[in-house]
Write a structure and sequence with these properties.
about 300 residues; mainly alpha; 2 domains; 13 helices
Length: about 300
Amino acid sequence: MIGAGRGWGRVLGLVLVAAAFSVVPSTLLIFVPLALMLVALPPRRPGWLVVGAVGLVLLLSGSGEGVLLDFGRGWALIVGAWFLLAAAFLEPPAFLGRGLVAVTGTFATVAGFAAVQPGTLGGLDRAIRMRIQTGLGMVLQMPALAARPGLSDALERGAEVQELLYPAMLALSSLAALAAAWWLFRRLTTRDTEALRPLREFRFSDGLVWALILGILLLLLPVNGIADRAGSNVLAFVALLYALRGAAVLLVVGGAPGPLGWILVALVGLLLYPIVMVAMFAVGLSDTWLDLRTRRARSKPDA
């Protein structure tokens, strides 16, 4: 999401986020919506329309079996369709609003399917749990971890958190993939390199704070099971968005660091991850009421 070289650095960051957090093939999350955009959204260029149609057929009918692959295809198709629907009603350049509508609509659609066909999501849960445990097993077999039981325990706890919060991770990866697909669509069809704004301008409707409150209320309800899990995932997803908003505020207030500064930021983030995330979340949440970037702009003396 860091602007560089006509926006390619920004889209590369989005692709990396989609790949890092996705529990399904991230290529599907990016290229299925991109193909739908090329087919359905203006300006419809005949050449790109054909590319989109052929790509859509290949992506949805490729070889390979498995619950995760089938789910990934269906999810990518639904999230892309919801994005097209949102694009029809939300004026540009409101990508984030469209993206959030698409992700929310997709979760609602999948929940509807699960209600009609109980047990559908059970197979998905088992497949994702198996994938996470398989990856964890491969990591734990590394000789470097044999003499460090504390690190092994931390990795196991991390795997448990990942199993619980994979819906939030899927939501984040879908949003990043949609952003990458939108940028590529605009770049291919109109040569627009500013379809996505820089990270320092990242913001969303202040009404999203109600989703944060909803997540907290679901966790506080005196019931177990689905309400707890739904609350945890809603809270995790919205908290990540607020943390990203906090990072945007800090970029404006503190200025963008140079190459060495980004390396130091990455090291501090890795070493003090929980503290950094809580701090950025607090800044992002406070920006809902304080609008820190606007205040800073007003406080600057005229040149």
